[in-house]
Design brief:
Radius of gyration: 17 Å
Helix content: 25-40%
Distance between the termini: 32 Å
Number of helices: 6
Bound molecules: uridine-5'-diphosphate
Strand content: 25-35%
Order of helices and strands: EEEEEHEEEEHEEHHEEEHH
Largest sheet: 7 strands, antiparallel
CATH architecture of the largest domain: 2-Layer Sandwich
């Protein structure tokens, strides 16, 4: 598959066309942003690490019956994926309170939630990805009721699969963000799953192993991303 023109450049990835209109190539960058782009920086090696982490987790999800855009890892930073039409709704899945939820509801960070919380945000950088509910989504025709039902169902399943898998690696999945796309009339999981898009806490020490180290200037950012990759790779070598 040939890598052709740059189609789109996002905050963490570039998307390239290929000679097959059904596929695109993702290229992961080391650039890091937080607080809607107000904080910018570089996490050296992040692109390579996130490419591998995300591909590992997408393959795990595929094995558990979740349809995803993943096709093949092409290099350290590049992955071939199905070309989807991204549904402009970000799904946030929460097992414990953290980040914006802690702030909004006054729940101390780490508070266990009695049931899994799903939140939706309208994917729009200029507006800062505002939170929306299903009524907004239908009123703005961002997705259909049928699509949202599939999205909610898949999001809960992804959470269960990842929770179980990561628990064995002494990683607690606090919360994460998913994006979905339309492909041949079907809704499939797209974008990435990495320390940029998840909160991962070490089960034993409570140490943060994710982008909060960058957001909150906690230091050892690169090390935390590497640690997640190593735990996943050690498990797959067994
Ligand atoms: N998240 C993300 N992209 C976003 C917003 C959130 O990947 O644009 C992830 C974030 O890494 C965390 C979860 O979604 O794992 C919940 O984020 P939250 O709403 O608490 O926002 P934050 O505190 O990160 O601003």
């Amino acid at each position: 598959m040939k890598k052709l023109e740059l189609l789109y450049e996002g905050k963490a990835k570039k998307v390239y066309a290929t000679d097959d209109p059904g596929y695109v190539i993702l290229e992961y960058k080391d650039d890091a942003t937080a607080f809607n782009g107000l904080k910018r920086g570089t996490i050296v090696g992040k692109g390579v690490v996130n490419n591998k982490i995300s591909n590992h987790l997408f393959q795990l999800l595929e094995r558990h019956g979740i349809p995803t855009h993943y096709v093949q890892e092409l290099s350290d930073r590049e992955t071939l994926v199905k070309r989807v039409e991204i549904i402009p709704v970000e799904v946030i899945v929460r097992n414990r309170a953290a980040g914006s939820l802690s702030k909004r509801l006054g729940l101390p960070e780490g508070t266990r939630l009695k049931s899994v919380v799903l939140e939706y945000c309208y994917k729009n950088d200029e507006l800062g990805d505002p939170m929306v509910n299903e009524h907004h989504i239908y009123a703005m025709e961002l997705a259909t009721e049928e699509e949202m039902s599939r999205i909610a169902d898949m999001s809960f399943k992804v959470n269960q699969i990842l929770l179980n898998y990561l628990r064995d690696l002494n990683i607690e999945l606090i919360d994460f963000k998913l994006e979905f796309g339309r492909f041949n009339g079907q809704v499939i999981l797209a974008d990435e799953i990495s320390p940029d898009t998840c909160r991962f806490w070490d089960t034993r020490t409570g140490e943060k192993l994710d982008k909060d180290r960058f957001r909150r200037d906690l230091g050892d950012v690169e090390e935390a991303y590497q640690e997640i990759l190593h735990r996943l790779m050690d498990r797959s070598a067994e």
